[in-house]
């Protein structure tokens, strides 16, 4: 039995599909779209090179604290949230997309993207191929 909150797993955006539904994850992504109608933020991160996977981040729980800098196209943001279960009858995502319910979202501020990618690549290599399974 666990006392306290479920731990968060730091991962690359491209590795999100390896995690089961309801996993609590933390990842970095670049804003490529924001729908004010649905409160869905689309994040991408082209790493490894050629990766076209998209995270559709539901920010409805954060609307009171979200600012325009965090939804600006091209902004890099950190997200902590849960991987949503796929709905049986309603297809809300396309192949190559996954919905995340955001608990916390914040601007990455200045950072070195190459160092971040190398660090997580090393972490993945040390943990083995099925870190989310």
Reading the helices and strands in chain order gives: EEEEHEEH
- Radius of gyration in whole Å, from Cα? 15 Å
Query: Can you list the strand order of the major beta sheet?
Result: 2-3-4-6-5
Number of strands: 6
What's the topology here?
Blueprint: E1 9-10, E2 24-35, E3 40-44, E4 54-58, H1 68-71, E5 76-83, E6 97-107, H2 113-127
Parallel strand pairs: 1-2, 4-6
Antiparallel strand pairs: 2-3, 2-5, 3-4, 5-6
Describe this structure in words.
19% of the residues are buried. It contains two helices and six strands, in the order ββββαββα. With 133 residues, it is an alpha/beta fold. It has a five-stranded mixed barrel with strand order 2-3-4-6-5. Helices cover 14% and strands 32% of the residues. It has helices spanning 68-71, 113-127, and strands at residues 9-10, 24-35, 40-44, 54-58, 76-83, 97-107. A hairpin with a 4-residue loop joins β2 and β3. The model is unreliable at 88-92 (pLDDT under 50).
Quick synopsis:
The chain is an alpha/beta fold.
What structural keywords apply?
32% strand, alpha/beta, 133 residues, 6 strands, five-stranded mixed beta barrel, globular
């Amino acid at each position: 039995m666990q006392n306290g909150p479920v731990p968060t797993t730091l991962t690359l955006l491209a590795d999100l599909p390896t995690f089961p539904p309801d996993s609590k994850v933390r990842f970095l992504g670049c804003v490529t779209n924001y729908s004010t109608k649905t409160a869905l933020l689309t994040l991408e991160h082209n790493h490894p090179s050629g990766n076209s996977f998209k995270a559709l981040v539901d920010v409805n729980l954060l609307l009171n604290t979200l600012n325009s800098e965090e939804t600006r196209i091209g902004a890099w943001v950190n997200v902590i949230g849960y991987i949503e279960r796929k709905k049986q009858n309603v297809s809300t995502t396309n192949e190559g997309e996954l919905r995340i319910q955001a608990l916390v979202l914040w601007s990455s501020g200045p950072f070195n993207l190459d160092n971040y990618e190398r660090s997580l690549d090393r972490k993945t290599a040390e943990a083995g191929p099925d870190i989310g399974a």
